[in-house]
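Re: Re: token formats

Sure, here are both.
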Amino acid sequence: MLKYLCVAAAALTLGACETTSSRPYAPSTANILAFQAALKETDSKVQVAPFSLASGVSEKLTCRALGALEVAPGKSAREFVESAMRDELFAAGVYDAAKGVAINGELTQLDFNSMGTGSWDISLKLSSTALPEGYEVGTHYTFKTSYSAIKACQNVIDAFTPAVQELIGKAVADPSFKKLAGSQ
């Protein structure tokens, strides 16, 4: 009997930590139009270099007592933001992997809050050979959370994509974007 109780206790302990997963990124129509508008006059093309993490920024995100958050299927948060930028540029028809100015990105902030009013705080520094000093954009994206840890942590994950869309929207809306892309 003790053997069965130990097995049951072990199963409950192992099952207590859950991984909450996100959905794949979907490009934003508003961002696509903004990229097209920013680069149409010069017919500039860009590419995306591998993004990096600033010192002190961690991608090992955990939510309440549930354990690890997987912000993107099979990708780190850094890879997700890099891929999202590439997807937006490709959908806008301004991405060219072979030529064009390479945009570098560095995640300088990656934090969330799952208590009270939920929020994502994400900041990104962008630079290129055309604008080596670059510029930084950030977003404070709020969303509803929940008392339940499972629901609250899923809300955190569900809010990641729109937070990244908003971040990319701010990047292209910045007056420095045209110079970053080599179109000024």
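Second one below.
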Amino acid sequence: PPAGGVTVPDVIGQTEADANATITGAGLVAATTEAADDTVPAGNVISQDPAAGATADASSTVSIVVSTGPDAPATVPVPDVAGQQAADAQTALEAEGFTVVTTEQPSMDVEAGLVIETNPAAGTEVAPGTEVMIIVSSGAEDVVVPDLTGMSSEDATTAAEDAGLMITFVEDANNPDPEGVVISQEPGAGATVAGETEVVAQLSPDLGEPWSIITLDPRSEEHTSELQSH
């Protein structure tokens, strides 16, 4: 090199510490900036200026760009883990870099121990590392059986379903009540049972047109005259 000049060393691919030591050892000064790179490992030199082999004044600056690794995406979608076992769902989410918290709530539709949903919901775009809550079913919640006696089958069905129960009707053909209403039930009103328990309700038969039974008093004039006519 000409008098007063030094040859710039090649530091591409070196770690930042090694590159700084090499440049300083050549009588130059290192200046570092950082940039994301998909191929150069984090902490290693991506590029330099002046280039390797160039002649530079002693104590002049060599700029190096150091990799921070692949550029992280701005957002990522929350995976769909509904229906999975809680432990499997947590493992899947943590593998994607999410922080996971778990809570339970009763469900009549999802088996105990399985994930009902997540918060944020599956498919939501969130920042990497976001906290995701998995909501796990604790099974059907206990409910109190309502009093269905005196109700029509339609009203009894509504009342049972609103309480989270199923209902089956049987008819009492020996009962002359013409209204077609619930006359008994099992389990009884006020019992505490698991959600979706079946209530068996006995209906009186619906005989259609109203009717009545007339009982004659033996002392009445009408009855006396009727007996005399016979």
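The two ends are 151 Å apart (CA to CA). The CA atoms of residues 155 and 173 lie 21 Å apart.
- S.
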